[in-house]
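Protein 1 of 2
SEQ + STRUCT:
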Amino acid sequence: MLTSDTGDGSVTRMPLPPPRIDAEEVAGVLTAFVNANVMARGRPIQPDDDFESAGVDSMGLLKVLLFVESEFGLWMPDEDLVEENVMSPRAIANYLCRRRGPS
């Protein structure tokens, strides 16, 4: 929490802004999570690989989105669940960085 003096002797508390994140680092974290928890052994993906083409189904994508929420503290509202935001680990990373601000 940040605090500021209001001049009248009271203090205003303001929440800290969320930490900035790096898209490349996030894409790597997401790719590692997918390879360890969603993909079959021997079928790893890369950050730019399309989830659908790699065989990730809706349940696998749900696991990824739950991981994003728990790891980065951001959930994706329904209107943001569009292909350009969730088609690959890098697409999700770019979305998260847009939501959090530039690194």
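Protein 2 of 2
SEQ + STRUCT:
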Amino acid sequence: MAGRSAARVERETKNEKRAASRESRAASPEPRAPRSEPSATSLDRIIHERMRLAIVSALAVNDSLTFNDLKALLETTDGNLSVHARKLEDAKYIAVDKSFEGRMPKTQYRLTAAGRRAFEKYIAHMESLIKAVR
């Protein structure tokens, strides 16, 4: 009985020390050195995907484009364009205007101010990554 008690006390002491160590690490994290080089992991994941980057790039050089214009320009399917355009719309990077010409639906896309800023930031980040590698 006494042997078990001593072992139990020893385990409890070790557990308390581990808990105290975890708490002290959580309370005072070690300072990290500032990054001098850009990180590829900090790229804007919304824009970084190939089709979304193509959409934003096309809209950056055009005031607006219709769904059919974008589809033809990017050589993609209706479904693929719709899914990626919705992601960009949800992020407020593009604005979508839907209307009708006669009985035909017409969807018009344009880059928002937030989308333009995000795109310019993305391009600057990519340029700095390229410089860092060279």
